[in-house]
Amino acid sequence: MKYRKLAAVAAGIVSLTLFTACGEAGGGGGQTPGSGGGGTITLGFSQVGAESGWRTANTKSIQDSAKAAGIDLKFSDAQQKQENQIRAIRSFIQQKVKVIAFSPVVESGWDTVLKEAKTANIPVILTDRAIDSPDTSLYKTFLGSDFVKEGRKAGEWLTKEFASATGDVNIVELQGTTGSAPANDRKKGFAEAIASTSKFKVVASQTGEFTRAKGKEVMEAFLKSQSKIDVLYAHNDDMALGAIEAIEGAGKKPGTDIKIVSIDAVRDGMQALADGKINYIVECNPLLGPQLMDLVKKVAAGEQVPQRIETEETEFDQAKAKEVLPQRQY
Ligand code: GYE
């Protein structure tokens, strides 16, 4: 009796497996996996979180353009945690979405889950942030910015701004999320640009996790521990905005007593730049949605796409910020 029951369960598992295998192969005359009725493409997207103004604009761009492109978007917010992103990707694989796209919170540790996607024949697109895996067969393409270049631009501005300074120029740095591509690369590019000028000294450098709250908290600590701060380099506007509160709280004038350079150029950052509280912003474009949906359609159709697609970006000083603020979309 017991044996027969077991056998029945086993048979059930076998037929279930066969059924699944059939579905994976797209056979059996049913719908293609990942496409709902009428050939709609299902896109599983794992977002980093909602840590900054940049991220909010990026999420909106992705949601709006998926809608406009008629793509069925399954959106998941990882709250800046890699384990949440891995869980979301595994769930997308289980749901047999047609394409997976994600913005990796950190650079390393993706090979296992991306191999699972590859085995399931689901193409992956990296957007905004890259990964450090040498196995480039794990994803079809990368769409985003050159973060090293952004950091370099911030450093180049500084060397011009302080060209005639004779003494040491003490810099504090607010880094982005530890281990993330933009934090690693923006640090690197900036360091490269200031390396040949010995007067530039990075006297403190710590993560502010790309958030206003943490930017404020870490800047408060810097102001207590450092006797002389000439410059703040923040890896994004939100941390710079938090730091501005800390600087004002300490009775100093941001943009004058402490010069500030940051990256992103979101509306609040641009407003602070126009108000003279930030001195220079290097742009990082969050409006990746339309290009991403184009890529999704192409990889879903099995078309070849370039390995890397970089977004066009510019820089803003205070005068330029005043000029463009009225038309700024985000
Ligand atoms: O600069 C920052 C956000 O990955 C480019 O992440 C993005 C960065 C952006 O939190 O504001």
UniProtKB/TrEMBL annotation:
Pfam families: Peripla_BP_4 (PF13407)
Family of this protein: Belongs to the bacterial solute-binding protein 2 family.
Gene3D superfamilies from the UniProt entry: 3.40.50.2300
Compartments it resides in: Cell envelope
Record domain Periplasmic binding protein: where: 44-303
Biased composition (Basic and acidic residues): 317-330
CDD domains documented for this protein: PBP1_galactofuranose_YtfQ-like
Domain of life, per lineage: Bacteria
Gene source species: Kibdelosporangium persicum
Region (Disordered) residue spans: 311-330
Lineage: Bacteria, Bacillati, Actinomycetota, Actinomycetes, Pseudonocardiales
Name used for this protein in its record: Periplasmic substrate-binding component of ABC-type sugar transport system
Main location: other
Signal peptide segment: 1-20
Record key words, sorted: Signal, Sugar transport, Transport
